[in-house]
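Suppose you are handed a protein chain with no further information: no name, no annotation, nothing but its sequence. What can you learn? This example shows the usual starting point.
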Amino acid sequence: MQAQEYAEHLASQNWRSFCNHLQGTLSTKKTWHILQALIDVAHNKTQRRHTIQRLIHSYAGTEEQLLQELETKLRDSDNLQATSNNFPTSREYQGAPNEELDWPFRQAELHAALAKLTHNTSPGKYRATNKHLRQLPHWR
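A reasonable first move is to predict its three-dimensional structure. Written in structure tokens, the prediction is:
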């Protein structure tokens, strides 16, 4: 029994270490492939599309009701996970104000960030690619 607990502790510790290693790398292709493999059992777009179509066709209500139910379940699971991990459920910043972090970006900081970009990173939520960022006239 003690060996089982120790093995579970090591597995948990290794998982946390692996997740900590991924922090700050969400824009890389490798991290997204790992996350996709963990989240999705379907390995390609066609299989995912078929799974979604089966879900829609087998659902008794309308598509709007299905979306509402999924949104409710996802929101509830986020809240449950956040409270079970003792994280605040609010997404607003909870810490003390930091004037240095609230300053606008300096041109030198932006130059340094652009220099660190690699070509295998994926665009963020604003869909700005590395090519677009590097072609900004006032950042050359």
